[in-house]
Amino acid sequence: MEDSRYILELKHISKSFPGVKALDNVSFAVKPGKVHALMGENGAGKSTLMKCAFGIYQPDNGEIFVNGKKVVFSGPANALENGIAMIHQELQPMRALTVMENVWVGRLPHHNTLGVQWVDWKQLYKQTKELLDDLEIPIDPKTKVQNLSTSHCQLIEIARSVSFNAKIIIMDEPTSSLTETETELLFKLIARLTQKGVSIIYISHKIDEILRISDDVTIMRDGQLVGDWPANELDMDTIVKRMVGREMSNRFPSKKHKPGEVKMEVSHLTSANPHSFKDISFTLHKGEILGIGGLVGAQRTELVETIFGLRKKASGEVTIDGQKVEINSPEDAIRHSMALLTEERRVSGIFPKISVLENVTVAKQTADHSSYTNGLFLNNKKRQKDAEQFVKTFEIKTPSLKAEIQNLSGGNQQKAVLARWMLLTPQILILDEPTRGIDVGAKYEIYSLMEQMAQEGKAVIMISSEMPELLGMSDRIAVMCEGHLSGILDGKDATDEKVMYLASTYQKSGVTTDAN
């Protein structure tokens, strides 16, 4: 019998992968025209459940109903035909094409002239303009996608979903790369969609967002359903407790480390790219966590990648332990006991199709060929011993060291990449968005590891776009704006307002002096 209360129902869904039971008898139901949040720690099964709903995976057991009718999806195209669309965390638009080509790819309107099918560009523009106007998205259909911001690319993906007449849109961590302003733009569009009767399934670790825009919340843990609640019956503490299955009275570990003498000094560093950062100077101390804040486009990543030798500088100096050093490549940086955890772990962090063991040991194996060799051959016992030690120390959840790292949760992937660098015992650790896309429990574990490193006297640089993280973990916060250093705040005195002011306003005469 059809249940008119729900537009989508997943009943008793189970799904297993080699060595892992990802979903265990999970049921999930979405009402028409509502925002339904799906929450849980990394590895809880959220994405797997939604991939079953979108036809990417076939469930081992269970049933799926759309508008009360049982469906079996052969793939994502079949799901789209049934009104379900999914916007993935890692957007992959065709950047060389226009907005209108991206929206209607595979469905471009044609006209026949002299027996030849030609793209009807006039009609393509017209139908794209009507769609974008209806959604109040202020983008020219003829704009090349490569010229758009991340948030606008996301809006185009939503427009594409609507063009399929999707009545259910799944959004996986949609604000992980967005500024506060861009997030507001997304929320306004979500509100317009729900007013039109579209249901949004919203996967996010950002609890404040969930409480603000959701009607209903489903929480999962370890592949099982914890429960469903109206959002107005929940608060942050309750959600965290139900997600992690334990009390978390503090979001950040207590600070026991004490910054010491200067470890590294950056003086008047300017990028070789004229559109990037200019004249950056700061110090980094032993046993210090130096946060770097700023809005998207502030050139924070470009700065640390230049310090690490991934990008070229035009001018400026870097000194370590009082000695000027030339770092023109990552190999140079590693020789000077530096490590860099990159922003996009899936793109430039993990090697997805090889094992956890290979991922953890690859840096040490590359930096010191003799570390894992017996003459001409690899010494697998040494590699196994090192990998086992760090998997245990960092509490990396994996079926075995032989498991492909791509099958681990985001938080465990991040800890594995961190373990890779720790094998080299670096003294300067640069972390670019270390907790992006991972859950509150895994975040605390990463924070604890950072605190431990600082206590050991290591110097840590942390780029973060999350204000609570920046304020909660940093001893000092260097704030960038449009490629310039706007100021450096003492962590004890820093506030949201002070950071945001510096992030949005650069006045050369007003730059805060960096005190040693």
Descriptive notes:
- The structure is a single chain.
- With 516 residues, the chain is of the alpha/beta class.
- The protein has three domains: 8-244, Rossmann fold (3-Layer(aba) Sandwich); 250-337 and 426-516, Rossmann fold, CATH 3.40.50.300; 340-425, Rossmann fold, CATH 3.40.50.300.
- The chain contains 17 helices and 24 strands.
- It has a six-stranded mixed β-sheet, sandwiched between helices.
- β13 and β14 form a beta hairpin.
- The chain is globular and about 70 Å long.
- The N and C termini lie far apart (72 Å).
List the main descriptive attributes of the protein structure presented here:
516 residues, alpha/beta, Rossmann fold, 3 domains, six-stranded mixed β-sheet, 17 helices, disordered C terminus
